[in-house]
Amino acid sequence: MPVERSCCFFLFIHITMVDYSKWVYILMTITLFNLNLITNTTAISNQFNNGLIPQFNSNTSLLTYNNSDDNIVVFNHGENGYPCIRTPAIIKTKKSLLAFAGTRCGNGDGCNPYNSKTVDHMDTVMKKSIDNGKTWSSIRSIYSATCQDRDHGTPVYDRVKDRVVLVFRGKDLLTWTMYSDNDGESWSEPFQINLDIYNKSRVSPGRGLQLSESNRYAPNRLVFVAQFGVKGKSLDIVYYSDDHGITWTRSKTIIPSGNEAQIVELANSTLLMNARVEVKSKQTSRLFATSDDGGATWSSFTYRYDIAATSCMGSTITTTTTTMMDDDDDDATTGKQVLLYSHPSSQGKEGSHHRMGGTVWISNDEAESWNPFYHATEKEVGFAYSCLTETFTSKTIGLLYETEDADSCTGPSCKIVFTTFELPS
Prior knowledge:
Radius of gyration: 21 Å
Shape: globular
Largest sheet: 6 strands, antiparallel
Number of helices: 3
Helix content: under 10%
């Protein structure tokens, strides 16, 4: 049996596990997969290194599922007169959780309310939660521009300055930034980030990254990624600030074929980019790249299919799981870094209406392998753009995501919901 076919059987097991009438077939399939895996270990390893074949970690905990009773609608279509509110972002500051989104002038692109009106402006809006996401403040616009100029905002929390830095495409389709030193209560005047020929790039949705204080190359650096170019011919650029968002430098490397992307820092100070791909022949893949100098240059571009799904923005963060140490002290613990990645799990179809089955994947080996860990929605329920965050509760992760609203809107991006889930021990 070819390696590729055995991997497909494994994926089929995950999809049909809820159909108890097929247990016998599933057990036979597991046996076939395991036998083939043993005899083809070298082949799988070689092909995975080229980004061709999924590699799964059998030690990952079983899937957990979202309890919809715990979901909280943070932004909704029609709220404050906005036809649609899209592109969620969320960060944890010293005091609160801050949620951001971009409003739309009309419907479309995954948000089609049954009764909606158009407006003549697009805003960056935010809400705050001071109780770990249980309740949220009223909606507030922090930046407004015309329907042609606006897009969305991408935040990062600067823990050194206790500052929130927001980057967005605004007036004249240029890249702008502003910051808040009081937890989002007030903001500086917007000022432009000069990216030369890439001034009209779009900052990737989700969140920016602040490097750790212990990063070997650029401690505490703020790093953002943006896409530039038309659909199917886009590329990614990276820019960063070493003075808390006042001045900016663009990376020397262009990441070809990249689109909406997120960057994380691995334990060894390497930066890892996970990007959407819009090249039609590879659009279900993810483009990975690495940087070993704090984002100044990038290399090791790899298309990977182990988390292949319909083309969409995906969120990636690192966090730490706490485990008991083998020590006489029962309270002694150690932390292990894990990576989390949220994205629709629906397969192979183009178009926002095919974004379904919100899933969080987990990696405990620095993205060498991934396993589906948490289902945010059922597989036929809409799930589009999303953003992961740590919360104020240990081992509890927050997820802010777009989903459908069957009663009053069609599409997977009708409302933005917040939920939480627990990390494995």
